[in-house]
Design goal:
11 helices
């Protein structure tokens, strides 16, 4: 039995929440021209498996799913998955960004739910074979010659060791420090 088959058998969420999880995974990392998305990478199965093994994940996720659907029903008259894309985005924008928490403190638990879910989706995606291909991750492979970092990452390189040493503050000798202590 494969890991995804085992995860499917262990699904801990009901049908409504599983559908919601699929929708949210697709909104967080959708398929595009570069690679398949979170659903194809197995993120929903990974998250279900973790929730079946970890009561805290289950509590946070099921509580967030409940809040999301209740808020959509109250605001739009339907579950989140049945809302129009602009309605889904409007609601997720409330809980996805730190700035909204400063204006509405009641969103704290919902923001925590979305932060946990987003982390789980990205962890599942980028540790999958699909995610590693998307990152062009080579793994622990032997390189006969290192050509340097790709151009898009060179702007973010750390200063060289020589630059760090040159910019270090000068440390006074122990004798000079001792003399200053006696002069006080």
């Amino acid at each position: 039995m494969t890991t995804s088959e085992a995860a499917r058998r262990r699904r801990v969420f009901n049908t409504v929440y599983n559908r919601l999880l699929l929708t949210l995974c697709d909104l967080i990392i959708p398929a595009d021209e570069r690679s398949p998305g979170a659903i194809q990478a197995g993120a929903p199965e990974f998250i279900s498996l973790l929730a079946s093994e970890n009561p805290e994940y289950f509590r946070v996720l099921s509580g967030g799913f409940l809040w999301l659907n209740a808020t959509c029903k109250r605001t739009y008259g339907c579950d989140f998955v049945d809302c129009a894309p602009d309605q889904q985005r409007e609601l997720l924008d409330l809980i996805a960004y730190r700035e909204t928490g400063r204006t509405d403190m009641h969103l704290g638990p919902a923001k925590h739910f979305f932060a946990v879910l987003r982390k789980l989706v990205t962890d599942a995606f980028f540790t999958s074979e699909i995610g590693m291909l998307d990152l062009q991750y080579l793994g622990n492979t032997h390189l006969s010659r290192f050509e340097g970092c790709p151009l898009h990452t060179q702007a973010f390189t750390a200063p060289s060791h020589t630059e760090q040493v040159v910019n270090m503050p000068i440390i006074q000798s122990t004798t000079e420090t001792a003399k200053r202590g006696l002069d006080k």
